[in-house]
Write a sequence for this structure.
């Protein structure tokens, strides 16, 4: 599939930057572009240089569930450090609730998203910070479908920061995410 080509591209980008600190290895703009391309391919959507929110509108609930999975996959990085702070988990739950019931309250979605982002701002370690941001982006998918891409990107960054190995983010976590999205696509097309 096309996303395998994207994985190879991501791996080659990492190989070019060997020996530099982790923070210099993941280039969010490049990774976001690559994730967006892969998601477009998997959803059979046209790809353009600029993000078109309307292209993903028909798949918004599917993307919200996927974004919740992306955030939940890295959530332990936050919860292990801040076990008494449930704001990111509540954001993921709110996103799932919207995706399964269709009941939308902009005030509730906005509050859950901002609460998760506030938890991220308070976090001291990058892995926890990125995991909480992933949750904030996941719930925001109920408002704008392309926030799912942000959840994916923050999940990738959380995995890389947690392990100290950029390959865990760019290859393993991203591969897991795309495989999960593929499973959703297969379920909806069956």
């Amino acid at each position: 599939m096309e996303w395998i080509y994207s994985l190879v591209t991501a791996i080659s980008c990492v190989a070019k930057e060997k020996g530099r600190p982790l923070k210099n290895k993941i280039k969010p703009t490049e990774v976001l572009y690559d994730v967006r391309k892969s998601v477009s391919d998997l959803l059979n959507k046209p790809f353009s240089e600029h993000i078109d929110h309307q292209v993903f509108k028909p798949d918004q609930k599917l993307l919200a569930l996927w974004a919740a999975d992306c955030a939940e996959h890295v959530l332990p990085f936050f919860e292990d450090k801040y076990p008494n702070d449930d704001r990111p988990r509540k954001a993921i739950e709110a996103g799932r609730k919207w995706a399964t019931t269709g009941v939308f309250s902009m005030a509730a979605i906005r509050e859950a998203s901002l609460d998760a982002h506030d938890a991220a701002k308070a976090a001291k370690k990058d892995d926890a910070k990125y995991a909480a941001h992933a949750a904030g982006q996941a719930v925001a998918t109920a408002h704008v479908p392309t926030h799912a891409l942000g959840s994916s990107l923050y999940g990738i960054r959380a995995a890389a920061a947690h392990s100290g190995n950029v390959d865990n983010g760019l290859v393993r976590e991203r591969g897991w995410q795309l495989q999960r999205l593929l499973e959703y696509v297969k379920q909806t097309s069956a």
In short: The CA atoms of residues 37 and 47 lie 7 Å apart. Residues 2-189 form one domain. The helical segments are 2-16, 28-42, 60-79, 87-101, 106-122, 126-140, 147-163, 166-189.
